[in-house]
Each structure stands twice: as structure tokens, then as C-alpha cells.
Amino acid sequence: MSFLQAVLGFAVISVICQQTSGNLITSKDEQELTEKELESLYKLETLLDEREIINKERKKKAKSLILLAFEEGLEKSEKMVERQTYYRNIGMGRRNKIKRKNNRLFKISKMSIEKQEEGFILLSAKKALVKLTGKTLKELSGDPDYQEAWDDILAGSSIDSSRRKRSTKRATTNDCQKLSSVNEYRTIDGTCNNLDKPNWGAAFTTQPRFIDEVYSDGINTPRISADGTPTLTSPRTISNSVFIINNGRKVSKPEGFNSLMSLNWGQFLDHDIVLTPTFAEEHGEDIQCCKEDAIPIARDECLGIEMTPDEDLDISCMEFVRSAPAPDTQLNGMFMFIIHSLHVSTVNINYCFTIEAGNQVTNAITSFIDGSMVYGSSEDEERQLRGIDGKMAVKSVSGGDLLPEDTSGEAFCTLTGRDPVNDYCQNAGDIRVNVQPGLGHLHLLFVREHNRIVDELKNVQPSWTGDQLYNEARKIVGAIIQHITFNEYLENLFSDEILDKYGLRLLSEGYSRDYNKNINPGTRVGVATAALRFGHTQ
């Protein structure tokens, strides 16, 4: 019996009781009135029953369409892997193009590959659902039947047990409160910085936005021209037009902040607070988006840039791999799909990935200025980088300690991919350590500083354990990086007016009271993709 039926039953009994209360014998008119009232109630009950049946059918239809959309999403994910294999087999995978320059000088983490797959399945499911229903994401999110079915399916309650696996939880307030050191030291992955919102700013969470995303299809297809033509002006043309042309030479106006150290610190800081994963192949290999540097390849992972060859770049297609889609927009729980393909694998999907949201992107590292580029943003990375007695691991040579070697075999140290046998890729808290020498120098500087601080602490606190020495030194190094950033980098970057307007100056004494626990500290998309490009593109 439904709630409405129960209410109706109660109403019927109430009417009968009222009609008979105090009068065991009723007149004919009173009996007729009672019968009419009962007849109306029964008609209302029938009407509500019919409406409930209709509502159930609508919910059932919504659920079946969403399940079908997810099946299509899973199928499209499998086909993408098949296409990657195809391109690799015909010599168009980046692994096969050793003579060609690499698009990056860093490896792709296993976690990034997993998250890429999750996000792609969700986006593909949304596209399929829009096509199946003829509704936009906004319309679907405003329909309670679809919104409820979406949340219900991703929560796992509508999938039979054969398609469910164990749940992978995000940090909760209770989890954080159980950490004995939560009030003394930062967690390595950035969780528990805010006990009310323990996943804000953590590694592998979605980057917040200043403004909502805009795609031509409302999901993830790039925008088109305002006049309806499918392509916009080439980004290469726009970037070239930013520079002043003087007798055929590109020159820029002199800036007072143009120093090599400004560039290096800007990049070092950037690598402390954001890493946006891009699409990669199944095992982390680069995606190729242009055929013979001339023709863009139509792939979900690509936005190859068409351009006119010039004296700087004698190509007509520039490689551009898209950012991998984020698998979640909120962080309350996880659900695992089993993908049935040539092999069985599992995919974690966050059930609070809202139906309305279009493509989002992930920050693979912590959003805080916490020295994550020195120490890593996961427990696995931290274990690889730690040495003994609280120190960081180093490679000792006659000239002094160097960064340890990356023995994973996944790192790149040269643009050609032909690393000398006697050379080695450096390993650090951020995977981009090998991008350029100035960046590697700063990584090494702070590893050495950590170890120097450990020696100093050991002298004054000989009873401390290795963990205590490590955590205290890590806290101090993080504070040093923060101090240099605010007291030196930003002081030289911004005018006095800007520093005062936004409260960016350090206090000469006391403590700042500006912290607001209701502000998400996650690095914004606009900062990652626009503002921070300034740091190392001067």
C-alpha cells in the first residue's frame, strides 16, 4: 500500500466515524450524503492509483534509458582503446614515432589513466542520454525522474550484485578526526585540510571554475563560431597576433619581471598547485593528433590545431591533446562498473557526478602551496621519494647529492625519446621535473634543504623518530615555499595597489584571520589554463 492509499483509507474511516459518531441510526438523506462522499473518495483513490502507475512507468523508462546510456558509454570507452591500438599498429602511435619530438617530458600516472577512463564513460553516457531523450542536460537535471534515476544508478542500488564491487571511499570528517596528526601535519594527498569539506583541494578532485563551462553540444564538443560555421580562428593565428610585428620580427614589450628565476619559480609554483591530466593511451603513451604534421586526426582525445606553415614551424597541423575528463564533480561516494571486454576490469565512478554538468577536468595534485612537487601527492609517491631517518632519498655522487633516478621506465628525459644509456631521468614529487634544467635545479635545492633541516632537527631533538623528523622538515619546507611565493615572487609580480587590494602582503607580526572555511581552495580552471601560463611563458 502506498502512502497516498494509506491517507485515503484513513480519510474514509474518518468520514464513517464522523457520520456515525453519536448517531447509531442515520436518516436516508444522511446515508445518501455519506455514500456520495465515499464514492468521491474512491474515485480520488482510483485517480491517484492511476497517477502512481504513470509515475512508476516514467521512473522505469528514465532508469532504463540511463542504463542504456551507460552501456553505450562503456562500449564507446572500449572502442576508444581499440582505436588507440589500431593507430599504434599502423605506426601512428607516439611510441612508434621515436624520431619525432615528444609532446611532453613527463610520464602519465596510472591513476590519471584510470580517472580518464571513468570520466570518458560518464561523458559518453551523458551524450547518449541526450540523444536518446532529445533533452538537454539542463532539462534532464530538472526532471526529478531522470535526476533520481541517475543518482540511484551511480549509487549502485539499481545494479545487480554481479555488476558491483567494493566501494572506494573519499575522506570523510570521521576519517579525518581519526588521524592522530591531522592537526599537526598536512596529509600527503591534501585531504582533511578542512574537516567540514575534507576533499576540497585534495589530489584527483575536480577543478572548480570561475564561470560555467560552455560547449557547443552542452557536454564536451568545442565551441563553434558565432555565425554558425564549425571552426573558430586558429589558436596559432591568435597567439601570433598577440606579439608586435616589427620588420618581420616578433618582439614583445620589455617587462620589469623578466628574469630567469622568475620563470623558474613561476613554473615550480605552478607544479605545486595544479596538474591537469591530458588524454593518454591505455598504458600512458602519448596520443598523436596530427598525421605527418599536416592533417588533424579525428579522435575524441584530440583537437589538432590547423595552421599555416611559417619560418618558425614548417607544419600545417600542431599536436594538441585534450584534457582528460574528470570523473566527478562532488565527492560523496564511489561505485564500480565492471567493463566486459577482452578482459574484465573495474572502473570507479563517483555517484555524485551531477547529470547537469558538462565536461570537467581533474587536478591530479594538491591545490595547496604545500611542497607537493617535492614530496608528492600520494602515499605511493611519498614512499618512493623518502629515504631513511626522516630524509629524502638522493643519488650520492662526488659533487654532491642529486635527485634519485626514476627507474619506472615511463619517464622522458629527451625530446627525441632516445635517452643515453648512461643518463637517468630524475624522480621528484611532481612528474614534470625533467621538463627543463631550471625546474630540476629547484627540485634538487629543496630536497637538499629538507635533508639539511633534518640534520639540524636531529641535533636539537635526538630522541625524535624518523617520521617526526620527516614531518617537521616537510612542514618547514612548505612554509619556506609559501614565504618565498608571497614575500618575494608576488611582491615583485604585482603592484602595491594590487597587493593591498587583495591582502597579499605578509603580516610583520601576528597571524592572519582571512581563512574562510566556506571557500573551496581548489585551483580554478581559469588559473590553471590562463593565469599560470604567465609564470613560464614570459
UniProtKB/TrEMBL annotation:
Protein name as it appears in the record: Peroxidase
Annotated keywords: Glycoprotein, Heme, Iron, Metal-binding, Secreted, Signal
InterPro entries: Haem_peroxidase_animal (IPR019791), Haem_peroxidase_sf (IPR010255), Haem_peroxidase_sf_animal (IPR037120)
MF-aspect GO terms: heme binding; metal ion binding; peroxidase activity
Cellular component terms (Gene Ontology): extracellular region
Secretion signal, residue range per the UniProt entry: 1-22
Subcellular location: Secreted
Residues reported in the UniProt entry to bind heme b: 536
UniProt record, GO biological process: response to oxidative stress
Provenance organism: Mytilus galloprovincialis
